[in-house]
Amino acid sequence: MLFYDFNFKHIRRFALEQLFRSIGWISDYQPVIRKARANCLCYENIPYGPADGDANLLDIYRPKKQYGLMPVLIYIHGGGFTMCSKDTHRPIALGYASKGYLVFNLNYRLSPKYRYPCALEDVCRAYEWIIHNAHQYGGNINKIAIAGESAGANLTLALALSCCYHTKSDIVHRAWNTGIVPQAIQLFCGYLQVTNPERLKNELSDKSPTKQMHLGVAKDVSRAYLGKYYKEYHQDRAFADPLLILLSDKQPDRPLPPIFAMVGEKDIIYSDTKRLEKILIEKNIPHVINYYPNEDHAFHILFWKEQARQVWRDGYRFLSKCFE
Question: What is the pTM of this model?
């Protein structure tokens, strides 16, 4: 039985990764992405850290026509901490660049080979590198935003909190020490609490195989990222659960930036965004939270869908207001 479970998980992960790659390939040929590519420059595979292979590489996208310093957008890809890359999310980076942003599209070390806190350490290191180097590519670090989806949204929120909460943790010190707090963050269908995936059973309004499969994926993601510690919160792994940091009584040492968050109403991790909205209201943190009916997880990357295009219109509008 254990052998069967092991192989089923790997087959499921392989199938999901191929699906993301296929979506990225299809998106590359969408008219809006083809136009964006024609109007942008790309600097590929720039190292920001010491990890072997592709893990500590980033791509930089910028519009060919530049008028003054550009706002900076850092994108952190999703994929359950275990798969995908800057390459699978290239269309998203191109979309931002076509709107006038200097975009840094990151790789980071993946689980289960590299468990928490490796991915967070990497994005903090990348943030430090970008703060020190963005000006060389025409970026204005006083106008910087971070965005990511799913696991990438978890890392986005954790990175932003690393800039705002002064802790003794060596994991996040690079982000704090920059002294730069992002002006905005965007969380697309965020998995904002990795521990205790069993809580998501409350999202199962029916016993359909699809819902059960999504719950299984969530458990796999949590186990891959945290190993045997995935069931319970612990202070030593606090930044794996950035939502719980916000829900705590601890006050930030620097003001939190405005937050844009979205989720499909059929997404099994829908409740994470609902809980986020509640605490943002209670703490009076500027925010825009959007819920999209009849949509499942990560639908926003399906650029050919009208509601996906609406997500990006909403997201770009939010950023424009933050950078006014």
Answer: 0.91
Strand pairing class (57-63; 102-106) = antiparallel
Instruction: Name the nearest CA neighbour of 191 among 156, 227, 229.
Output: 156
Compute φ and ψ for 17, nearest 5 degrees. -65, -40
CA 181 to CA 131: how far, in whole Å? Answer: 10
Domain range 2-322, CATH class: alpha beta
Model pLDDT for residues 292-307, shown as the tens digit of each residue: 999 999 999 888 899 9
Asked whether the beta carbons of 155 and 120 are under 8 A apart, the reply is yes
Token couple for 2: 């254990």
Sequence-distant (≥ 6) Cβ neighbours of residue 215 within 8 angstroms: 197, 200, 201, 203, 204, 268
Please state the domain extents for the chain: 2-322
More confident residue, 66 or 317: 317
d(CA 160, CA 120): 11
The mean pLDDT value of the chain amounts to: 90
Which residues have C-beta within 8 Å of that of residue 174, sequence separation ≥ 6?
124, 125, 127, 128
Q: What is the pLDDT of residues 91-109, one digit of tens each?
A: 999 999 999 999 999 999 9
Under DSSP, is residue 324 helix (H, G, I), strand (E, B) or coil? coil
Could you tell me which residues come within 8 angstroms of residue 257 by beta carbon, excluding any fewer than 6 positions away? 160, 181, 182, 183, 184, 185, 322
Residue 282 makes CB contacts below 8 A (sequence gap 6+) with none
